[in-house]
Amino acid sequence: MWPAKPLKTNTHIVITGASGFIGSAFVAFFHEKGYTVSALARKPPSNRLAGVNYVHYDMGSIPDTRLFNKETILIHCAYSKTQTTTDTDSNSLAARHLLELAAQHTIKQCIFLSSLSAGSRSGTYYARQKKQLETLFAQANSTILRPGLVIGNGGLFYQTLTTIRKTRLLPITGGGQQPVYYISIKDLARITEDVILKQRTGTFYALNQPAIPFITFYKTVARSLSIPLRVVPVPIWLLKTAAIAYKVLPVKAKITSDNIKGLQNVPVPDPAVLRSSVFDFEFESLEDSLRNL
Predict the structure, then answer these.
(1) If you ran DSSP here, which 8-state letter would residue 118 be given?
(2) The dihedral sign for the CA sequence 111, 113, 117, 118
């Protein structure tokens, strides 16, 4: 999947969340590029890559300090979806532990994989928490990447694609005109390497421009993958009613108030940050990204 270009480098890439969709893709990318890679995960994958150092990592604990030195690049992808009302949740704790170690060992660079949602005014728990984590990394002069919807064999896009394949239905609200900013997993990895090679700090978007309307985006996906698709308009009041019902029903919620807030307040990139998010290569088109699925 990745073009292998072995490097002669002492750079040590430490990746948290290495068993997740983005984290595992980064492990493969940087390993094939010739970097020394340590993959931190609560459950290391069964199909481990030869030459990668897999390390047990729990977000509530302090990682092995021997992984950190002046040649280390930390890429923090790990994220816990568990919600809490305290300021000492596992995500905040993990960020503070990692940043403290980075400062103690004067590592080369910290990179935080955030989200386009961090700049949203939706008020969702996810958006607030990502923004809080961004603040911690920004205070440490780190690099923050805000990817759009990541196209690949995992994550939110792949979950949606799996549902569409099963149901052949595309529910839409507001005429399906919400903007979708996307990036292929391959280009996200390339962007991450670019900020490493150039030692760029600050906040950057990782996304294709311009955005594609939601309905156009998923019609393109369905057409490219030969999936019959029926568009089903759904009024927002019906979703709100369903969210209330899920609160009282003894079933796992499929629609939450946060989901609705996200639909009504789709994040739009900050123009100033967008202007600085320029990279020296062209991104894959949506159609090209889908060919790798």
Answers:
(1) G
(2) negative
For the chain, where are the alpha helices, taking DSSP H only?
Answer: 21-32, 90-104, 125-139, 155-167, 185-197, 214-224, 236-248, 257-264, 271-276, 286-290
pLDDT, tens digit (0-9, with 9 covering 90-100), for 236-247: 544 445 544 545
Provide CB contacts within 8 A for 164, sequence distance 6+. Answer: 170, 218, 221, 222, 227, 229
Task: Please check whether residue 152 is in contact with residue 21, taking contact to mean a CB–CB distance below 8 angstroms.
Answer: yes
Torsion of CA 110, 115, 120, 123, to 10 degrees: -90
Note the pLDDT of residue 256: 53
CATH top class, domain 12-148+183-207+268-282:
alpha beta
**Cβ contacts of residue 68 below 8 Å, gap of 6+?**
14, 74, 101, 102, 104, 105, 107
SS3 49: coil
Give the residue extent of every domain in the chain.
12-148+183-207+268-282
The predicted-structure confidence for 244-279, as pLDDT tens digits, reads as follows 454 544 445 454 544 544 445 667 888 999 999 999
pLDDT of 9? 64
Helices (H) and strands (E) in the chain, counts: 10, 13
Contacts of 125 (CB under 8 A, 6+ apart): 83, 258
Of 158, 141, 140, nearest to 149 (Cα)? 158
- The pTM of this model reads 0.88
Coil/strand/helix, residue 254: coil
